[in-house]
Amino acid sequence: MTVAVKDVLVPDLGGTAAVDVIEISVKPGDRVSKEQTLLVLESDKATVEVPSPFEGVVQQIVVSVGQQVKQGDKVMAMETGEGAAAVPAATKPAPAAEKAAPIATKPAPEKAAAAPAEKPAAVESSASAASSGAATSITVTIPDIGTADAVDVIEISVKEGDVLAKEQTMLVLESDKATMEVPCPQAGTVQKLLLKVGDKVTQGAPVLELLVQGAADAAVAAKPAAAASVPAAEPSAPATTAAPAKAAASAASVATPAVSAPASKVHAGPAVRLLARELGVDLGLVKSTGPRNRILKEDVHAFVKQRLSDKSVATAMASGSGLPPLPEIDFSQFGPVEMVELSRINKLSAANLHRAWVHIPHVTQFDEADITDLETFRKSESAALKDQEVKLTILAFMVKACAKSLLAFPRFNSSLHVGGEQLVFKKYVHIGIAVDTPNGLVVPVIRDADKKSVLDIAKDMQVLSQKARAKKLSPGDMQGATFSISSLGGIGGTAFTPIVNWPEVAILGVSKSQFKPVYNGKDFVARLMLPLSLSYDHRVIDGAQAARFTAYLSQQLADIRRLLL
Hints:
By secondary structure, the protein is an alpha+beta fold. The protein folds into 4 domains: 3-113, CATH 2.40.50.100; 116-229, CATH 2.40.50.100; 242-272 and 279-319, no CATH class; 356-564, 2-Layer Sandwich (Chloramphenicol Acetyltransferase). The protein is built from 14 helices and 30 strands. The strands form 8 sheets. Strands 20, 23, 26, 27, 28, 29 and 30 form a 7-stranded mixed β-sheet that branches. The protein has a 5-stranded antiparallel β-sheet with strand order 9-10-17-15-12. Strands 1-8-6-3 form a 4-stranded antiparallel β-sheet, with no helix packed on it. Strand 13 and strand 14 (179-183) form a beta hairpin. The N and C termini lie far apart (103 Å). Mean pLDDT is 78; it is low at 85-122, 124-132 and 215-264.
């Protein structure tokens, strides 16, 4: 049995000087079949797989990912021989790949003889126009793409009226084996586009009408672009590299709302452009780290990671507002300033309130409750409870009255399902009470308020308020509320618009009570009136329901005997 060691060389690259090794598909010791992919190369115009020119065992790999190679460079050594074991049929390439793959071991001079200049012209022009020095309109066509099969136009990088430089990308084609950019063969102005995205084209198909200057340029146009002759029919990078990208596409596309230079102006290969399209990334925003300012796949991934970690983008994504972030202002230019870090409670509250304000269509219903008799009763009972160290406040009565109102109007005790098509009606009544602390606003929860007496509620409120101010509230103390009350009565004000505490659908704001003249049918008498501000989610509750709720609540507070019914 004769065994020989043969070198695998970089095949003809269609005139491209140097390309990057972007993937190595085998390792030393692997047995490979003829035409099996060994590595993947990428120029700034095409991505190409290099197939094995013979069957054998990989002995040595002399290149690495990221290295640049050119035609004729050694990439690996392989042991071959007549006694080599047959490779299972499953590892053989598809017939199309066998037909299109170039043999890497042909001498470089023979390849050079088959220069792109001998291939069909990429443009057409009239003889009379070419012989003059005036502006000439030529038709640019699809160059040799290495296959007779029709391929898809997946991107058009120019528009009518654009001034193009020589070798500037006009469009991107994609077959079942490769993605390839088609460069403009010469400088000129686009007069008319002759195809659109989704069209299928073959060699010679018209791309656009180009206005060029002078005969010399027209003569140059008779030669196809060298980069276009890269064997586009060869297999492209393995499809497995795109799968994770597709999974992340929706998140990344939200993370790139910005204005940039056209992606066609940037330096990036087809594989990178394909990845960018899958992720929804505008290449004009991506910082390049490759040679000659070339954008690499790593640059795209880094851009997506940075955008997803960007606080302003994350806030926009969380809020769903779709609005651009606010600009940062240097206030020190106007005078002295001091930066103070927000407390953890402030930060959490800000995020939750912003989310609720953006997502929930708020409406506020204003009303007043006559609490003259209630306040008289409260004061008399407070004196009797003083020895028990129980503080009986108007808020305790409010909780009880709200609990009964929620039972009468269960829609206010519900939540809108995340899908927006169902309501979740809760069979329990837990009421959150906003408490102002030195570190910010917290909302402890009175559980089963409908089953407790006013005295029990007052005791619960007292315990929770003490824990809140001592920073001893547990997460369980602040979860599960079905309705919230925000009372500013001890401070002042006549009305305000509280923000619904999602996932609740309503919140009651209470302002400072004051005596007002109220007409009783005969005379104006002084009555203690309590301002109520009910904010609600208009997707769940309409105005009539809100008015009925506040009217019912006012009746409970006006005559607390109703709370016993």
